[in-house]
Amino acid sequence: MVPWTAVALITATTFFSCLDTGSCHSCLEVFPSIEYQCTDRNFSEVPMDIPSSTQNLDLSFNPLRSLAPRSFSRITGLIILDLSRCDIQKIEDDTYQGLYNLSTLILTGNPIQSLGLRAFYGLPKLQKLVVVETNLVSLEDFPIGHLVTLQELYLGHNFISSLQLPSYFASFSSLQHLDLHLNQIKNISDGDLEPIKLNSNLTLDLSQNPIQYIQPGILKGIHLSGLILRGSFHSSTIMDACLKGMTGLQVDKLVLGDYKNEIRLGSFESNTLDGLCEVDISEFWMVAPSEFPSDSNGFFKCLVNISIFHLVMAPIEELTNLPTFPKLFSLVLTECNFDILPILPSTSLPSLKELRITRHKDLTTLSNLELPNLELLDLSQNSLTVLSCCSDNTFGTTKLKYLNLSYNAHIKFSKNFMGLENLESLDLQHCKLKDQNNLPLFFSLTNLQYLDISYTDTHVKSKHMFTGLSNLRHLKMAGNSFQDNILHDIFKNLSELVSLNISYCHLERVLQEAMESLHQLQVLDISHNNLQTFDPLICMPLWNLQVLNCSFNSLTALDGQNLEALPGTLVSIDLSGNPFDCVCDHQIFFQWVKEHIHLLNRSNPMTCQNPSHMKDVSVLLFDNITCQMKNTIIAMSVLGIMVVILVLALVYKFYFHLMLLVGCKKIGGGESTYDAFVIYSSQDEEWVRKELVKNLEEGVPSFQLCLHYRDFIPGVAIAANIIQEGFHKSRKVIVVISKHFIQSRWCKFEYEIAQTWQFLSSQAGIIFIMLQKVEKSLLRQQVELYRLLRRNTYLEWEDTSLGRHVFWRRLRKALLDGRTKSHNKVAEQGTR
Hints:
This protein is α/β, with parallel strands linked by helices. Helices cover 21% and strands 19% of the residues. It is found in: Cell membrane; Cell projection, Ruffle; Early endosome.
């Protein structure tokens, strides 16, 4: 019994391991909730943490051994299930119940010993069943008769010894491919293929079966889409006899021959294929024969009515002695050891329209062809050096529509495709193109719809490189380069372009005008470049864009503010392989990714590169809530800092006002030393001394004034003296207003303090003396002072006998207001 502490420890370990992103699933999450790879994980049963929405599940190379009923019923979304080499020995009834959407089931390499009669029940949509190398002995006991939706059935590499198909094959009306290769079938007898007699769409693969006998006439009336008999005959004699037994067969595609690593057929006689004279064949393949008879005319005489002829790895050097093929429109010669192009007499091939001569490593010279009706020419994967390309003289025809020169050595342009104006497709990929900047190279190809110049060492310098290609729909130019690694407006003439591939081009920047004229573009591949930014506004003119591939660049994010510029027609976008910065600055982009997960490419996940703790973590796990919390904290912090700054600013601005407030609280209701503190401009000091001081301090009654030149304490800051000696020790404040007062900063400061002082001291008052007339425009500079003078009574100095008498009487009366008896005694003593 496991101790509770151990259980708790295991539970806690499991929980905390799930905190580490990506560890919550026991399998590799290829695409979240959709595709999981569980290969070679030592599982003995189906893992429980696979989501029910999973569509593609790979459980291969796990020791499952036995499959119980409803083993996968929880994963209702499955479409593809791979159980290859899981050592499955027993499959019980109803194992796959609940998989109503499963279309592909792979059981390759399992030593099945026990198979329930209802083992494959519950699979109403199964289209592909792979039971290769499973020890299957008989089709009769194989319980699949109810799988009427099957389209592909692979039963190769088993121990089936009879081709007699069970009657339930008659219900497989949708079956298109039946693979029985590498079994033990030796004879094809009467009735073996009766259940599929009405299925004309079926391809039957009997390769590598040791067929020795085909009963003559038993294939009469049977129509097959394809019959593959590679490596099925141990000798040309057996093949001769078996082909004669195929009389009456109608087959669209017949494949004979061997495998390169297992040559069985020896030399052929000229009559080896005579049995095919009574077989209706449209397409014929001969693969890896050891040799051909010298009489090619007699050897191929029973094939003169075929339409398509493939010779693969055939040891022939020329094809001069050929019968006439009146219906042959396609001839394919693959890896047949040519070192020069074979001479093909047009008289023997009057209807030939397609010629493919490919994969000849020694074929270096392009000789003239004389096939005036040729429309398709494929010379790819040879070692050709074409020094003068390309014109109608090069290929001997003006009717070419499809030309493929890809994967050759060097091609030098000198004729600019004159006479080949009918070309619709041109493939030059992986050739070393010379003089490709001769302008305009493609000017005459007004009908061209497909152009591939990928990996041709092309360096695009001119904006007119594609002039003339007004009908081009598909352009591939991956693996080349552009001037300054910038994509300029070089596609302005390609208004009909549907797909564009400019991957692996070292691009660092794409100008916004580069795509302005591509309104019909549906597929854009700009992957594997060096783009550090990709503005979605670039795609704004692409009204029909469906597929966008920006994978494997250096993008840290897309501009979140411009994501709405991406066309609404998009069905797929690949951004994988970029070093994304999973930081809050890009949260708009990552939120967009989550909302558009259905558009993302499923084969390669998008992962974070920075910060370090998010490295290799899926961007789908980026937490926007954390960003919102961080933004809130930042906002609160900023607000707090702003409040502190505001308080400090207010304290700084009203420091002396606060000092005055503190002083007033300290003094409380105590007696004042002075009757009035005088605020005046230093330029008015003469009037203050001769008039104000003399009349008030020497008159009767006398008043004690606070004057800065006389009463301020030396060594103390002026501002502190103003507050401590002036306001705190005075009952009243006298403000002497003049032009000089208005223009003085110190007077302004003292006046502002006086206002605060008056507000804080209920018994205080300010007496305004207008020493001289001040212009209103100048007075308005002190807005508060101007308002106060308009609302309050003030004294005006008038230097006349009557004026002086009235002035001093009113001023003394104002100063006496609020004066206590103790003040009067002090004044009288001072007078005596």
